[in-house]
């Protein structure tokens, strides 16, 4: 029995490689839903910016409306990022990308991104960046609510 438990744990650990920062065991919901339990520096260090760049490039763009919890400049990875809360201006990007920490409302005045939490993402960059198509009306509405939030700068 102990050997089986160790084997299951080992398989779980290996399945997340090399994304060990995003590891959550299966009993907690696994890596795909771990952001609902624990964010900030426990999950979100900007490690998925290279994956965001790749995701965007595969769709023929490097421009994105970004709400990112981290300090590394997105431009260092070839990402042309505009602040998500200013994205409703001319030349709006096709996609919005939101770090898990900000998506959960941590470190924000109020909860301007709450409308995105009920939406299904169009993609993910790793386990810490959620990507939404701004061509979807419900995403555009969530963006409008974020931009018009009373805490907006």
Word description of this protein:
The mean pLDDT is 80. A five-stranded mixed sheet has the order 2-1-3-5-4. The protein has one domain (39-147). By secondary structure, it is of the alpha/beta class. A hairpin with a 3-residue loop joins strand 4 and strand 5. 27% of the residues lie in helices and 14% in strands. The longest helix is centred in the N-terminal third of the chain and has 14 residues, at 2-15.
Nutshell version of this structure?
With 153 residues, this protein is of the alpha/beta class. The chain has helices spanning 2-15, 49-57, 100-103, 114-117, 137-147; strands spanning 63-67, 80-83, 95-99, 123-125, 129-133.
The overall number of domains is 1
Strand content: 5-15%
Mean pLDDT: 80
- Helix content percent band: 25-40%
Please, what is the oligomeric state?
Answer: single chain
What is the CA-atom radius of gyration, in angstroms? 17 Å
Distance between the termini: 57 Å
The tally of helices reads 5
Label the overall shape.
globular
* Helix and strand run: HHEEEHHEEH
Strand order of the largest sheet: 2-1-3-5-4
Alpha-beta classification: alpha/beta
Low-confidence stretches: none
What is the number of strand segments? 5
Largest sheet composition: 5 strands, mixed
């Amino acid at each position: 029995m102990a050997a089986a438990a160790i084997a299951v744990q080992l398989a779980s650990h290996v399945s997340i490689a090399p994304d060990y920062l995003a590891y959550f065991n299966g009993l907690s919901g696994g890596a795909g839903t771990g952001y609902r339990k624990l964010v900030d520096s426990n999950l979100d260090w900007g490690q998925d910016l290279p994956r965001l760049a790749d995701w965007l490039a595969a769709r023929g763009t490097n421009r994105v409306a970004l709400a990112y919890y981290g300090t590394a400049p997105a431009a260092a990875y070839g990402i042309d990022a505009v602040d998500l809360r200013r994205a409703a201006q001319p030349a709006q990007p096709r996609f919005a990308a939101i770090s898990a920490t900000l998506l959960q409302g941590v470190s924000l005045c109020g909860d301007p991104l709450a409308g995105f939490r009920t939406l299904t993402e169009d993609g993910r960059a790793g386990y810490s960046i959620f990507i939404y198509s701004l061509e979807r009306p419900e995403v555009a509405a969530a963006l409008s609510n974020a931009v018009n939030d009373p805490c907006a700068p």
